[in-house]
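Need residues for this backbone.
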């Protein structure tokens, strides 16, 4: 055997180990990326559901304001009339402001609805809020 052939032994093993390490790292990255994508999708869905729960609370507040002939509603929608908004806590607050106008007083109502799920500061906590103003 020539000295050149003696130096070439084992090169294929090193290349195979390198290839296995690279493929294992790529597989680990793909698993991590897939988990992150699934968690992001789940949180996006929870955020959308919280938004619509808050919109429902706002609609309840507007309907209560109109039905009560300008009595400001407020409270926890989950306990109002036995309603449950898919596990979300929906709080509706209302404030009344009176402004003087040349033709008399103008009353503006501001309604805020906040829907939340989970414990604040927790990894699965989600909260959305919407508001509206109306004159009566």
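Answer:
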């Amino acid at each position: 055997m020539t000295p050149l052939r003696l130096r070439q032994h084992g090169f294929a093993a090193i290349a195979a180990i390198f290839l296995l390490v690279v493929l294992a790292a790529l597989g680990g990255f793909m698993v991590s990326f897939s988990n992150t994508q699934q968690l992001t999708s789940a949180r996006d869905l929870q955020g959308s559901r919280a938004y619509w729960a808050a919109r429902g609370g706002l609609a309840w507040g507007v309907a209560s304001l109109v039905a009560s002939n300008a009595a400001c509603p407020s409270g926890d929608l989950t306990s109002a009339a036995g309603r449950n908004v898919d596990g979300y806590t929906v709080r509706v607050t209302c404030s009344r402001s009176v402004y003087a106008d040349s033709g008399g007083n103008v009353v503006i109502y501001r309604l805020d609805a906040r829907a939340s799920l989970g414990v604040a500061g927790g990894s699965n906590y989600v909260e959305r809020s919407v508001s509206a103003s109306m004159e009566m």
